[in-house]
Amino acid sequence: MRFLLMVAGGAVGxxxxxxxxxxxxxxxxxxxxxxxxxPDCAGKSVCSSGDKAALELVRTDPYGxxxxxxxxxxxxxxxxxxxxxxxxxPAQGEVFVSPRLHExxxxxxxxxQLLPGREREQIAPAGLARPDELYAYIGVxxxxxxxxxxxxxxxxxxxxxxxxxxxxxxxVRFAMAGVVLLPLGVFLxxxxxxxxxxxxxxxxxxxxxxxxxxxxxxxxxxETVAAAMAGAVLGLxxxxxxxxxxSRIGLPGFKWFPSDGAxxxxxxxxxxxxxxxxxxxxxxxxARRAAADPLGVRRGAVAKPPRKWGLLPLVPGLGIxxxxxxxxxTGHAPNDTKISSLLMPLAxxxxxxxxxxxxxxxxxxxxxxxxxxxxxxxxxxxxxRNETEYGGALRVVTGLVLLVFSASLVQGVxxxxxxxxxxxxxxxxxxxxxxxxxxxxxHALEHVPGVRGHAVLAQSWEDPNADMPPSINVVIATCGQLxxxxxxxxxxxxxxxxxxxxxxxxxxxxxxxGKTFTFHLRNGEGALKVMPLRVPAQTIRFHDTPxxxxxxxxxxxxxxSFLPAAFRPEGATLVLASESGPETVRSVLDGIGGIDPTxxxxxxxxxxxxxxQLIIVKTLxxxxxxxxxxxxxxxxxxxxxxxxxxxxxxVTALALLGARPWTLRGVQVAQVVVPLAVxxxxxxxxxxxxxxxxxVTGGGDIFWDGDGVPLLIGCALGAVLVAALGSLPLxxxxxxxxxxxxx
Length: 743
Fold this sequence. Notes:
The protein is α+β, with helices and mostly antiparallel strands. It has 19 helices and 20 strands. Helix 1 packs antiparallel against helix 4, helix 4 (about 165-190) runs antiparallel to helix 11 (about 390-420) and helix 9 (about 335-375) packs antiparallel against helix 17 (about 660-700). The longest helix is centred in the C-terminal third of the chain and has 39 residues, at about 610-645. The two termini are about 20 Å apart.
């Protein structure tokens, strides 16, 4: 039974380890397919020719928090192989869509405005990064791709927009190491040391019968290595089944093809060799004492008290973490990211290791003090047992302590990503170049459903012929239009140019009243007209967030009536404004696509690549937390069951002496809850400090965030409750005197 439990525990651990190690391979496979479908132009003579090369134009729009990619293609006179996932190169009027986009078009017919043409077939998996990707190839005429680029083939050496950026992937690896790998190491060690006390006495008996010390260690190592090897093989088979199921169902926001989850040879070697090697190491340590001192492992022997050196990793780790917290609180956040990238992971490893190694000493000291002062029989018996046999209870609680500590780090990672991708404005703006749209299209765009305001941004120079002439920005809009693209406007009067002033932003140094600037105007026929503009002395105040707003201090507000009829500024930008709700944004983007499907739209504040990465990172970290929870609970169940079996004779002895069942249950609960409470308090405090220091080194605006503290405390209390309830059934009503006679 012990051997089967060790195999089962090892299988669960190896399955979790394989999943963590498979994540980089899954992302790499997706990036490889993205690189293989990217248009490229090879051959100088063809790429520089007029109509031999085909044309391509890629447009990426946000659909919620996902990328909606459209690739417009126009044939040339030269042959071009079809993109991956298609059998033919798209002809004019043909549309090829991904399976997920095919389903979405049925649910939201408005998206078809972005895909001019008829749907011919769906893209095969070879041309998709993920099964749920929104991707389309659209065949158009060459005249419709004036802004297109020449191409002769598909495939580049790297993906333009990787699934997860290398820096973000390093953060995921760092978090996974804390959330999964640390508890996993504890779990595998627990599985390798099942029935540790009974096995130690059995090995001591063999030693007293004449077996050598090395023979004792080989016997124990052979048993643990055999169980670990069987568990590794079973775990890899379990991972294959889980990969087939989960890849088809998908995780929230992240899916992959089953072939992406195939384990490479290096991962198989790590699982098949690394786990048995860990079991061998743990087995040698477990057998060392029985081989060196056989009489020291008898039931009546007193274990050596833990030493203070277990606190050694915790002290420098907390020192580094505290230093970063103080630096952030005093406004001296470090700027050297290289040193922080080395010190921060080191601090996390030291704190995590210190939590595990310091628990025996701290638990024993606390047990001694409670046992001296308490008058409760249950609590006194529990604390005396923890004082003399501190290792049994700690095996039960270590996994849960590490899980709570890791949860804080994951929360810090999510906060950092959220700061990068969060849109802080209630107004959503969209930018389009007026060089790519006609005057009629501009008027149509200004009246797209959902658009509440619009303006034209242009640039004016003092001397256009100079190398670096002073310049100002001109906002062509009425007062009503201006109020719709900024947060608030004070004292605006229509019919006259005015200088804009934002109290939260200094005025542009070139915007001095009285200076004269010029900017170029063109009409639909290409006629050029130069218009002078004098910076007005009158100013109006507006309020908006600097860096997010489309308007800045020092810009000149110019009424549209000042422009000649049918003339527009050359090289200007049309700004549309709407509410920032997801449904409104989607409606506006669909309306823009219906007017000009090939127009390049820049939605301010929406970094769809970052949003998509954030969802994937959250999903991976969430999966890591689930794995960590499974490992922590499994370690608790295995260790608590093993501890209950080892303590049967002691519980029976207390029962024969007259202890009541509820007294014994109180002893069992107190033995687990007290060291667990100590560890969880340390984990919450150290984890919150590590989270804050991580945010300080990340360079964000938020260092101290109390939103996650109730969740951490709730997780800690939940772990205590689970440990307490799990200890109750370990005491039964039946008394087996054979357990006493066996001693």
